[in-house]
Structures are given as C-alpha cells and as structure tokens.
What we know:
- Helices cover 42% and strands 19% of the residues.
- By secondary structure, the chain is an alpha/beta fold.
- The longest helix is centred in the N-terminal third of the chain and has 20 residues, at 15-34.
Amino acid sequence: MEDIPFPRGVRDLMPNEALFRNEVLKRIEKTFQSFGFLTIDTPVFESTKVLNAKGVIGEEAKLIYEMKYEDIALRYDHTVSLARYMAMHQSLPMPFRRYSIGKVWRREEPQKLRYREFTQADVDIVGGRPSATDAETIAVGAIAIASLGIDYSIKISSRKFMDKMLESFGIPAEQRAGVMRAIDKLDKVGRDGVIESLQKLGLSRDMIAKIDSLIAFEGTNDDKLSYLEKTLNLGPEVKEMRETIELLDMYKLKQSAVSIDFSLVRGIDYYTGIVFEYKVSDPGIKSSVGSGGRYDNLIGTFSGRQLPAVGSSLGIDRLLDVLSFSSSAKHSYANVFIATIGDKNYAYALQLANRIRDQGVAVDVNIASRNISNQLAYANSLKFKYAVIVGDNEERTKSVRIRNLIDGSENTMSIEEMLAILKFEK
C-alpha cells in the first residue's frame, strides 16, 4: 500500500523506545512494590453501565470508546475498574493497597502530550485514615517520578474547599460541577478562557470576579489554609489538609515540592476530597504528568457499601516524552553479539551463548548467512558493547576473539577469560 492508514492519537514504538519504556515501568513498579502495594488485573473493557453510572465520569463520558453491537467499552481509567472490582470482591483485607499499570483509551482530539491510547500507572488505597492514606498515595507517585530523575512539583487542593467556596459565592449546587470543570481547564485556556466559560454558564459578574480572585490567590500554604479557616469556617477540612502536608514532609520529598493551588479541582465527577497533580519543571510542558484524588463515594455507586478511597495515576507516555525517550541509544537488552565466520561455526556459537547466558548475561547470536563485516555492522547498529567472533580456528582451539565495539580493541582468549570479562554485563 502506498499510504498505509494509521489511527490518530496512537503511536508505534521503535525498539530503543520500547526498551526505554520497559525500564521506566520497571522502576515505577519497583517503587510501588516497595510501599507494599499489591497488583491485580482487570479487563481492558468495562460495561458501559459501569462507565456511564451517575457520579462516575460525568461530562468526560463523551470520551469513552464504546464497542459496536455490545454494551461494553474500552476502559477510561484504572479507577473505575478498581471501584467495580472492589464491589464484586468484598472479602479483600482492608485497607487494600493496589497498583495497576496498563493502557487506557479516550476518544479525544489528539494534540501534544495528549493521546487516545496511553499507559497509566496507578496506586490506590481503599480504607484507612484519610490524612495518612492521602499522604502515602501522593508520596509514592512523587517518589516514582523522582526515581526517573525528573524534577517535579505537586499542586494540591480539595473538592471540599472548592464546593464550600462556590457556595459562599452564592453559586447554586446544580451549577458547581460545571464551574469546577471550567476552572479545571485553566492551564489549557488561561484565565480569560475560564472567565468566558463562566459567562456561558450564566454566572453574574460578581460571582465571576470572586472566582477569578480565588484562582489568582497567592501566598504560602499556611496563608491559604488560614484564609479558608477565617473566611469560610473550614476548620475540620483545613485540619485534615494540614495533617496531610505534615505527613508528606516525613516522606522526604524534594523541599517545597507541595503547594496548595485553589485553581486545581480535577474535572472528573467522582472526586470528593483532596485532589492533586504532579508537574515538571520544564516551562514548555504545562500539562501534568500525573494526578489523583480522593473518591469516597465511587465504590458505593456499584455496591451500596461506602468505602473511602484515594488514588494516584502517572501518565507514562507524558513521562517518556519529558525524558526524550525517542533519542535513547540502547536498542537491545543484550550487550554481547556472537559473530560467526561461517555457517558451520553456528553450533559452537550456540554453545558459547548458553555459557554466557548461564551467568545471567544477555547475548545475541548471528542467525543470518552474511559475511563478518555485515555482522559487525549489525552489532554496531544495535549498540552492542562486545562482539565475540568465532571461526574454524577458534572452534578448534576452544577460544574466542572478543572485540570491544566502543574502543575497537580486539583480543584472542580462552572461553573462561571471555566469561570473566562478560560477567559484569548484566
């Protein structure tokens, strides 16, 4: 085909990109496991009745990929799947910590750092004390990001704060969800865009002015919490937030990583309390690389059994773009390539490969009928560190020629000497 059709909002990964991605996922998963999170597995699609239930995704439900001829859809995120899972498996020990890493799908317009198919790495805690579970969920995501060498900050707020503030501004309860969704788009459309959206919702000039003043509020975390205490009488909610921030300090995150931001509300309907986003220091990247929040009513939507829960989700594709993963030089898990002078030396090459693999080192063996020059060109293209060259003479003397493909040096040696050099190439 002259022009092969390819869907928008998805991407193929080259070997170096896929390898880099796998290494990132391993680091993140290792962090999750170090906190004692358990893994579960759920299908890549859910019932549309689950995804479209009242108070679940809300306005964002228009982004769900529904299957033709069946009442099922590709999963929108891992959170709704967990809520459905908890409702169906009520004998699990509580509190229940779980992590899940996998692809999700959203039918939205593709743009920079925004895909239709992407991978999320989630941690969630069902049950437990709110301040303790909120802090741990936020911290584990931050530590996972830091393990990748990425400089980050954490924006934090609470849907409880926003709901009380909007109530104090005289905004009716039935309009608050729409107002929150408008405010949530601040990073995308700016303050003028938010004001325009609020005007379309029919809010008065006074209401809009108060909201604009709120999202522009500057000061320390203590300044903002004191404002809430004094102005809105949010004593219990502020106390809980203070406890969460104090606990976050104990996780030894980067200094001044956490800041309260009144413009942060998160657009999904199921959030009920604390909400947060992870940002990177690159000024050219405004989108968050992860987010989360508390959703105390979601599980009860499916079971009638109210279970408090909080979760954090890292956007793997955005993290990869931040790390410029496409320029990664490593193309293979192997650092060693065995080249054969002739096809008849293949059996000897296999014996050597097995000896090398026995000590935990990955190795690639020539399996094509090509001359030694082309074999070494192949090895160089995949960035192997060593080429082990064998021919009739090496097979007869049970030796090898080993070439360092980085500095070009080459030596003939015994198999044992070769193994001693390669044992550190894991």
